[in-house]
Amino acid sequence: MQRIARNAGRALRLDRNLYSSLVYDGSATADAVLIVLVVGAIPPVLGVALGRIPMLALPSMAFAQVVGYLIGWLVAAGLTYLLSTKVFGGYGNWQSGLALTGYAYVPLLVFAVLGPILANPFDGRSDMVELLLRLGGMLWFGAGLARVADVAFEVSAERRIMVAVLAVLGWWVITLIFL
Questions:
Q1: pTM, to two decimals
Q2: Which of 28, 68, 86, 140 is the most exposed place for a label (fewest CB within 10 A)?
Q3: Looking at the 3D structure of the chain, how many domains does it have?
């Protein structure tokens, strides 16, 4: 667990050396699953803890969040892989891209914690704080996906930005549908 926390801190900094080492780490995909599960579960748990959603709603909300984030993770990884390798001429394998995309979710952990504390994402309306948090999370996540395109698929600098923008857009649409 300490190793995951240390790697998560490095992922927040978009540390290229971390992402490079994860390509060959056999436990990186399992770590990525754990990261995505935690990112999905934190908002409803904090919502209950802060009294913003009823305790009875926690199981269904947490399940929906976690499933939505897992599907979003697969979509983001798939789009990053397909765009990097089939559209923009990179090369690499799906498995390493999947693991690295899970680590690209780490910035969303920051916003998953801050969202329920600074804003109320459960009241059905969006205020400026919540919108800024979501935008910040998406931009940081996009930077992580650009790092994935760089390290896992060796896409050139200009093209990895396009990969990240398109992958985040696809991820955003899918998470809107499932969340």
A1: 0.89
A2: 86
A3: 1
